[in-house]
Structures are given as C-alpha cells and as structure tokens.
Specification:
single chain; mainly alpha; 2 strands
Length: 599
C-alpha cells in the first residue's frame, strides 16, 4: 500500500473495522475485508453516487491491469464492478452519456466473459446469473442475441432443457431479423438450440414438434457456409439425432439420412481435431441402430467412445459414454456390468457435470433390482434425489426410470406410501409430456401396478409404447411376468414366441430367460409339470449366469411348485434357496409364498 493509505488502513484495523487477510487472491497484493457486513454497507451508502461510479470503474480497470494474463480468473469480479458502475451512472443525469455507454459496453462484455468462464468451470448458477445480467443491460438486438445464447448454454449446463431450447430459439429469431445476417452466428445458435431436443430430449418436460426442429435445422443450414466448421458439424449432428428424439423420423429413408449425417459429422470432427464432437458423432451413429432396437449394432460405437475418453476429460462426453453403456447392458441383460458402468459414470462425472452424472446413475440403478441389491439401489436413489435438489419433486425425464425402479422396491417391501409418492411423480411427468408416455418408467411402474392387481392399467402402460423398439427389452420382460401373474395363459404361447424372436433379432440375453420362465409357468398351469420343470430350469440357469439373484429366486419359487406338482423328491430345496433371498432383500409377499410352500 502507498504510505498515505497504510496509515489509514492501520487506523481502521486498530478500530476493528477491517481485517487484513493472511493470503490474497491476487499475488503481490495485500487484501483486506470488512469485519462486519453492516459496516461495509454503511460505508458504501455514505459514498455519493458519482463517487461510486468512479470507484467501481477504477477498481475494475485496476483488477484488469493488475492481473494480466490471469485476468479471466477475476472476470466475475470485474463484471460486478463495471456493472455497478454502469447502474450508478445511468441514474445520474449529469454524467456524459458517452461515458455511461462506455461503461455499459464494458459491463456487457465482462458479463458475457464471466458467463463463459463459469460455463467452462461447469458452474451453472454463476453462468446463468452472469448471462442474465448481460441481457438486463443489453440495448441492441445483437446484444440480446449474444446474451440469450450465453443464457441458453447455462441452462443446458444446468439440465434445464425447456429453457435452453426456448432461449436459444429466441436468440436465433433475433439474429434472423438482422440486416445483414451474421450467417455463422445464426448457424451456431441454431445448432446449439437443436442439440437439446435432438440429443438430450430427456432433459425436456415439453418437447418441441419435429416440424419446429426441422425448421431451425433448415434455417441453420441455409445460413452456414459449406465446408468444414464446428457450426456445420453441430447442425449435422442435429440431423443425425432426429430419429432418436422423434418417433415420426424413424422411417427407413430418414434413418438412412441420419446415418449419413452422422458419418459426415464423424469425418468432419476428425478433420477438425475435435475429439468432443467425434464422441458426439459416435453417439449419433449408435443412436441409429438403437432406435431400431438392434443392440448388436450399438456396442461397437460405445467401445470406440471408451477408447477416445481414455485420454479425454470432457465430463459431459465421459458421463454420456458410461450412461449409454449402462443403458445398453441393462436392456441386453448384462446386469452387473450395467450397474458398474452406471455407478462409475456418476462417480467420474457428477462432481464436474451433474446432469450426465445423474443420467448415468439413473441408467445403472435399475440393474441393481434384478440383482437383488435393493439396499444399494435405494441408497443410491437417495444420492440421485439429493443431486436433483428441489427438482426431485419435478424430476427430468432422463431419471424417471430410477423413480419407477425405486417405487417397485418400496412396494415389494411394503412401503406403500413411498411407492405411491414416486408413482405420482411419474404420472405427473407423463401428463407434462402430453401424449408421450415417459417410456423409461414403463417397465417397473407397470410391474408395480401389476403387483397391486391392477393388471389392465399395467398392460396399458406397456402398450403405450409398443412401437418404441429401443426400450422394448425391459417392457417385454415385464410383460412376460404380468401374463403369468394375471393368469392370461391364452396369451402365453404367442408372446413367448414373440419374445424369443425379438431376443434373437436384438441380441438380448436376459429376455430369453423371461420367456423361458413364462413358458414354464404356462406349462405348470396347464398341468404339464415335467415341461414346466425343464423350462424353469433353463430360466433359472440363465438368470444365475447374469447374477440376477432376484429373478433366480423368483424362478426357484415357481420351480419348487412345479417339482411338487410332478411328485419330485425335494421341492423344498428350491423353496429354501428362494426364501433366503426374499428374506435378505425384504420382498414380503414372495417370502410369505415361500414359507407357505415349505410348510
């Protein structure tokens, strides 16, 4: 400090109005703080408004000149001071309007840089606040467009898909109205806008229409010059992901165009050296067989993504890679691997990118259910809800499958009130999405309804997305059980055939076991105990290979009944195995059934 200020600061410290900090956020500078916030406020209010303008502006300029190459680290503080200087200046009619405008432009620029800096640090709230401040002082249309673009990015980071889409769309509309049009800026904003409903539709409670998405895709493509560019690449990715987001885009021709767009985007990403966009392009390539339910065509792209993320630490793409792996493996029936990938993806990315971390965990959680790891499922579901904060009461669609799984476990354990609460949240989200049922919740919410004997509702929930091939595997598995539980044996033979055919086409492992179990139950109901035993043994063996202890125990219960009906020597061995699992996990009804059988 200069000598004249040292004495003043020493006197203020003696009077215990300010304190000297041991360290400093700026190297080579001494830092002081007010001891009490009220002292700070009184001191600030005692400054004349004109002096506040000068003081804030000088502090901001001093920070920028002092920090040098580290100026971006202090941009939030710089933005605050320029913003306060401008707000004080615009209320003083005596000040030079040109000076006021210079302060506004400096504040606007600093707010945008602050929002971008917070975005890069994955600080969604800070990025949102800075972008909102920029928009609040924007005067020109192009300034509003820049602020809205920054705000849309912040909303995307915070997994608020509806706001991200709407904000980016508004920015695009402003840019379209300008003369001349900045083509690259318009293409960039359209690409960012479309990323939300096409690649991340699960972040939205209300999807736009496909017509709206295609309109902004055409606007962006028309505005974007030909040749390699990040802007054009993002638009290609939006085109590639259309079938993933919109069922009406899944015709043979559209799927072929999407695959071509994904291939073009992948090649362009490699030429541009953008690993993050190459990972996104691989995701788009995987989405084409995925929406057709052809799981054998998905895993090679996942493996390539894992190769790329070994030396790449973008938390968004890392988390999404693990999430897709967990999704794929759960539907195929490789439950232990699905749980491992889902949990590891959460642990690797949640601290830096909470949205994809939660997505990964939600995908992995339901794999714990067939494995009879119910305590862990509920504990990690609590982690998921805690990560959502207040949004746990209006969960985004991409986590809703975990809510359904937790509802089923609570129902099986006799926790009816908690199961009701979770089912109500699922139903609220279904209503919010209009006619589009939240497909990820269908299997276990239907299973819970079936457990309550509400079979018509359970089957209706599964029927709602009969044409949704990407998630057919768990729905078919639950339907196998519902047919048996509802004793609709006239449906059993035809559905066993359909399930086996789909399992072979989609390369699904676990679905074969569910089909075998339904065949065995139907045979037992028809009085063909020997045939039932053979089918149930096949199902039990496969479930055991998949570490599906819950499903193995349920199969053991049916097997014990079949052995008893066949006059077998030891039906109780299977019953005792089943009871041990049911008691361990707290499955009340099944435990009672096993005890009755063992009496």
């Amino acid at each position: 400090l200069p000598d004249d200020l040292s004495e003043e600061f020493a006197r203020l410290q003696d009077r215990e109005l300010i304190l000297s900090r041991l360290g400093s956020s700026m190297a080579g500078q001494q830092e002081f703080i007010f001891k009490h916030i009220l002292t700070r406020d009184v001191a600030y209010r005692s400054l004349p408004r004109r002096d506040r303008v000068r003081a804030h502006a000088e502090v901001a300029a001093w920070i920028e000149s002092t920090t040098g190459e580290r100026r971006d680290e202090f941009v939030e503080l710089v933005a605050h001071h320029y913003g306060e200087a401008y707000r004080a200046a615009r209320e003083d009619v005596r000040l030079d309007p040109q000076m006021v405008e210079r302060l506004r432009l400096r504040a606007f620029d600093a707010y945008l840089r602050s929002s971008a800096g917070s975005y890069s640090k994955v600080a969604a709230s800070a990025s949102t606040r800075a972008a909102e401040q920029a928009d609040s002082i924007a005067l020109e249309p192009h300034e509003h467009a820049l602020a809205l673009e920054a705000l849309g990015m912040a909303y995307s980071l915070d997994v608020r898909g509806d706001l991200a889409w709407e904000t980016h769309r508004r920015a695009a509309d402003i840019l379209r109205s300008q003369n001349p049009i900045d083509g690259m800026a318009l293409a960039r904003v359209c690409g960012r806008a479309l990323e939300t409903p096409t690649r991340w539709p699960g972040s939205m409670r209300h999807l736009p229409s496909m017509a709206d998405a295609e309109r902004y895709l055409a606007i962006g493509m028309d505005a974007c010059p030909t040749g390699d560019s990040v802007e054009r690449l993002r638009l290609l990715l939006a085109r590639a992901f259309l079938p993933f987001a919109f069922a009406e885009a899944r015709s043979e021709d559209t799927l072929e165009r999407s695959a071509q767009a994904a291939e073009e985007a992948n090649a362009m990403a490699k030429r541009l050296g953008r690993v993050d966009l190459e990972l996104a392009a691989l995701d788009a390539l995987a989405s084409v067989p995925l929406v057709q339910g052809l799981y054998g065509g998905v895993w090679p792209y996942i493996e390539r993504r894992f190769e790329l993320i070994r030396d790449f630490e973008d938390p968004s793409e890392v988390g999404d890679t693990y999430s897709l792996a967990a999704w794929h493996l759960f539907d195929v029936g490789r439950y232990s691997e699905a749980a491992r990938y889902g949990i590891e993806g959460f642990e690797r990315s949640a601290g830096a990118m909470m949205g994809v971390g939660m997505h990964s965990l939600a995908r992995g959680l339901n794999a714990l259910l067939p494995m009879a790891r119910w305590d862990e499922l509920l504990a990690r579901f609590d982690d998921l809800q805690e990560s959502l904060g207040d949004r746990r009461f209006e969960p985004p669609p991409f986590v809703i499958g975990a809510y359904a799984g937790a509802a089923f476990v609570n129902e099986a354990r006799g926790e009816r009130a908690e199961a009701d609460r979770l089912l109500a949240l699922i139903d609220a989200l279904i209503r919010a999405r209009g006619d589009e049922t939240v497909v990820l919740a269908d299997p276990y919410s239907a299973a819970t309804l079936g457990r309550r004997g509400r079979f018509d509702e359970a089957f209706a929930r599964l029927d709602a997305h009969e044409d949704e091939l990407a998630n057919r595997a768990p729905r078919y598995a639950v339907r196998c059980d519902l047919i048996g539980d509802a004793e609709r044996w006239e449906q059993a033979e035809g559905f066993v055939t359909a399930a086996r055919a789909w399992a072979e086409k989609a390369e699904l492992v676990a679905l074969r076991a569910y089909a075998d179990r339904l065949e065995g139950r139907a045979a037992l109901a028809a009085g063909r105990a020997s045939a039932a035993i053979a089918a149930l043994h096949r199902a039990r063996s496969l479930f055991a290979e998949l570490d599906a202890d819950w499903e193995t125990a349920r199969t053991d219960l049916h097997l014990a009944r079949a052995i008893a009906a066949d006059g077998g020597t030891d039906p109780q061995a299977a019953g005792r195995r089943a009871l041990a699992v049911f008691e361990r996990i707290g499955a009340l009804r099944e435990a009672d059934e096993a005890r009755d059988l063992l009496r």
